[in-house]
Design brief:
mainly alpha, Helix Hairpins, 2 helices, 91% helix, rod-shaped
């Protein structure tokens, strides 16, 4: 019996490896985005702490030097937060790019898999046809042998 051999199997294997690589890249981009968001959240928590400290400094006896230090710390935190927001935005873009690449590679792999399935179905139909032809020949041969 004939064995099915897909001529583009090596291409399909390469597409599967590329897809696995893109999945890894997508996972790394997702982890990077998560990390950047956590850093942003920590900075916002620190800023909230400085804001709370500034309010306390204004309530009690006023120490101008401490208030100025606290105000500068708040301004510094605002600048860090802006920078971190840009980092988060950059990480989001990288994640979206990785998602697009992954989708493209998945579509290519699925296309080759569908083609393989189609070729396999054609192979099965051809095999069934050959089998039917052999059975017909055998029946015809036995019928002619019985007539003699």
């Amino acid at each position: 019996m004939a064995k099915f051999q897909y001529k583009l199997q090596s291409v399909l294997d390469i597409k599967q490896k590329l897809e696995n690589q893109e999945k890894i890249a997508f996972g790394l981009a997702s982890a990077k985005l998560q990390e950047e968001q956590e850093i942003l959240q920590d900075l916002m928590i620190q800023k909230a702490g400085y804001d709370k400290q500034a309010r306390k400094l204004v309530e009690g006896s006023i120490n101008v030097r401490e208030i100025n230090v606290c105000r500068k710390a708040i301004e510094t935190m605002k600048a860090k937060i802006r920078i971190q927001m840009m980092n988060v935005h950059r990480a989001e873009k990288q994640l979206e790019l990785a998602r697009r690449k992954l989708n493209e590679v998945m579509i290519e792999r699925k296309t080759y898999e569908k083609l393989r399935e189609k070729k396999f179905e054609e192979f099965k139909m051809e095999l069934a046809y050959e089998e039917k032809k052999e059975v017909d020949e055998l029946v015809s041969y036995t019928y002619h042998q019985n007539e003699k």
